[in-house]
Amino acid sequence: xxxxxxxxxxxxxxxxxxxxxxxxxxxxxxxxxxxxxxxxxxxxxxxxxxxxxxxxxxxxxxxxxxxxxxxxxxxxxxxxxxxxxxxxxxxxxxxxxxxxxxxxxxxxxxxxxxxxxxxxxxxxxxxxxxxxxxxxxxxxxxxxxxxxxxxxxxxxxxxxxxxxxxxxxxxxxxxxxxxxxxxxxxxxxxxxxxxxxxxxxxxxxxxxxxxxxxxxxxxxxxxxxxxxxxxxxxxxxxxxxxxxxxxxxxxxxxxxxxxxxxxxxxxxxxxxxxxxxxxxxxxxxxxxxxxxxxxxxxxxxxxxxxxxxxxxxxxxxxxxxxxxxxxxxxxxxxxxxxxxxxxxxxxxxxxxxxxxx
Length: 357
Description:
By secondary structure, the chain is α+β, with helices and mostly antiparallel strands. 43% of the residues lie in helices and 21% in strands. The protein has two domains: 5-107, Release factor (Methane Monooxygenase Hydroxylase, Chain G, domain 1); 119-357, Alpha-Beta Plaits. It has helices at 5-22, 24-38, 47-80, 91-107, 130-150, 179-183, 245-249, 273-296, 339-343, 348-356; strands spanning 119-125, 153-161, 167-175, 188-195, 204-215, 232-237, 253-258, 263-267, 315-320, 326-329, 335-336. The strands form two sheets. Strands 2-3-1-5-4-9-10-11 form an eight-stranded mixed beta sheet, with helices on both faces. Strands 6-7-8 form a three-stranded antiparallel beta sheet, covered by helices on one side.
């Protein structure tokens, strides 16, 4: 038997605080409203709108069920701990409850407008030549590994491969609840210091890569942002990346230019042109949204804290692999000496620090 009364009490208190922040009663009211809309026989006349509604409905249902499960588990453990003791065999349940509660506490910080959205990430090689292009590939792998841990689905949107290694740039999408909210603070310059594997002398090399993070925005998300067809210049070409024989035979890849702003986006990895068109348009909307925010207020507030655009002068994190190993976030002070683990996708420490700072 183990005296864990304080731990159980602590979890119960945290849960009550989280329930107030989550506003379970309001969430259940919102769920009933969406459920009523889902029964409208005309709903599927607009399939995109219907899919988004059903997605919101399912996500809200999962959140409600999850917090109710946490509450049920906490009540069960509290019942066993009335005497200030908990049987040894229930300690794993206490640990699991604590972990689940911690995850939901982090999610409670994701309450801004677009936090629930899918995430569009672009990584660009900076100073460092081949080293920098390889660094882009390493960061891409890191984010894909992290997304797998989070249960996000990944889709590569566009690639510009490096001549010898990695990528000059790569754009990909992460699909899943709160993908943008979790990763929005990854935007900025990432610096790598290591012994170069690309020269015979194994010299110490510093490389830079720029990470851009945007929410995937649909037309209905930006009712005040007009994108006129006359302002769009579409180009279609054969995809250069792997994608099967169909991709190589027909012009499925798209390049979209917004004439008034000169913003250009490309999508080429889907097998069908219409899918690439949609991805490109959503990416353009996100970039126009970002531009609009920056133009209207030079000190734009981000979805948490002061907004700082992804730019080369905004170095956010340093990854040192030689002569010692250390990954340190320059904004939050969060650090890890297990650099390889971080590069293998274990960036939760930095993500959480960015959300709770």
